[in-house]
């Protein structure tokens, strides 16, 4: 299994990507890790390079503020584009990047290519839940608009992912909506509901956003516009919550004492809702495995992304999605 990592993408590139790749290569000797990027910059952070880690030198980098489509088309030697080309040409089985999200989506579409029968790939991050199991949410930003058929395909891909990568035997799939009744929602959700009922999934009906973190389902399906608003709302709420706690716990010596006592529990709570612990978000529906790390990912997040890619490859995730989508065609 060959996994390419865009070493130049992300807020802390290439240091964190290199350290994460080193840790992964040392732990899993059945994989080959390919670091894609400027070799001099990468080698500055390499110590005792294992035999299953190699470097593919590139000169260009896609920056965070680059216009995605123009950058992918013009920067042919950018680390992200080259990593995508390795997957396209079967020189790598998967790619991981913490770089420009729009550019990675464009790379997936224009370089890696879609699975036959998939109309639109979906970005599918894991959201934390109170029981620690998480919920796979898709689409959370790859496509702002969607049709009912797109949501049906998202549901199928998400269900297969939870089964193949997380070992959930019968993933519960919910449709994000403003109410639980079948007739609730806008035209999109009303049209999608019967399609999901007939799809080869365990569809449990509509799920309201306030129930998502309560682990009401294993997969939540929505269009990219609603999904991205939900994601940003959750991130904002979590940020405010921890900020308020910090303020309250530093007001007096009484509160500081209470904070010291509660610290272990609070740290566990924070860890449960930390993106670094939930790995990378797959861009489902492509001919190869493409994973998007958070822009602020550290070495541990990159290592978790490699672990995630390794499990997906072992279980032939892409092949399983292709077979289900094209079943009977």
From TrEMBL:
Q: Where in the cell is it found?
A: Cytoplasm
Principal localisation: cytoplasm
Any one GO MF annotation of this record? phosphate:acyl-[acyl carrier protein] acyltransferase activity
EC number of the protein: 2.3.1.274
Could you confirm whether the keyword Oxidoreductase appears in this record?
A: no
Quick check: keyword Ion transport in the entry? no
Q: Which reaction(s) does the protein catalyse, per the Swiss-Prot or TrEMBL entry?
A: a fatty acyl-[ACP] + phosphate = an acyl phosphate + holo-[ACP]
Its pathway? Lipid metabolism; phospholipid metabolism
> Which InterPro entries does its entry note?
FA_synthesis, Phospholipid_synth_PlsX-like
| Name this polypeptide is given | Phosphate acyltransferase
Record organism = Paenibacillus aestuarii
């Amino acid at each position: 299994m060959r996994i390419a990592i865009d070493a130049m993408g992300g807020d802390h590139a290439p240091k964190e990507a290199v350290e994460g790749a080193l840790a992964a290569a040392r732990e899993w000797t059945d994989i080959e890790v390919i670091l894609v990027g400027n070799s001099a910059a990468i080698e500055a952070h390499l110590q005792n390079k294992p035999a299953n880690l190699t470097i593919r030198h590139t000169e260009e980098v896609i920056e965070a503020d680059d216009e995605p489509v123009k950058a992918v088309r013009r920067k042919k030697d950018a680390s992200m584009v080259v990593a995508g080309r390795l997957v396209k040409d079967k020189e790598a089985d998967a790619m991981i990047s913490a770089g420009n999200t729009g550019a990675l989506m464009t790379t997936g579409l224009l370089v890696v290519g879609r699975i036959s029968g998939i109309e639109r790939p979906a970005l599918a991050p894991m959201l934390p839940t109170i029981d620690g199991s998480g919920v796979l949410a898709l689409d959370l930003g790859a496509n702002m608009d969607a049709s009912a058929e797109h949501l049906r395909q998202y549901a199928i891909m998400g269900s297969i992912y939870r089964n193949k990568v997380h070992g959930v035997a019968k993933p519960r799939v919910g449709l994000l909506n403003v109410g639980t009744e079948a007739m609730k929602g806008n035209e999109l959700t009303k049209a999608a509901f019967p399609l999901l009922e007939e799809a080869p999934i365990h569809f449990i009906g509509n799920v309201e956003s306030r129930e998502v973190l309560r682990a009401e389902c294993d997969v939540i399906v929505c269009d990219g516009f609603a999904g991205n608003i939900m994601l940003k709302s959750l991130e904002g709420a979590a940020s405010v919550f921890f900020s308020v706690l910090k303020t309250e716990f530093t007001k007096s010596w009484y509160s500081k004492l209470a904070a010291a006592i509660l610290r272990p529990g609070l740290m566990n709570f924070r860890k449960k809702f930390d993106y670094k612990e939930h790995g990378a978000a797959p861009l489902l529906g492509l001919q190869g495995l493409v994973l998007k790390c958070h822009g602020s990912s550290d070495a541990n997040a990159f290592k978790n992304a490699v672990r995630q890619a390794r499990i997906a490859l072992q279980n032939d995730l892409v092949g399983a999605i292709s077979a289900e989508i094209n079943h009977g065609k």
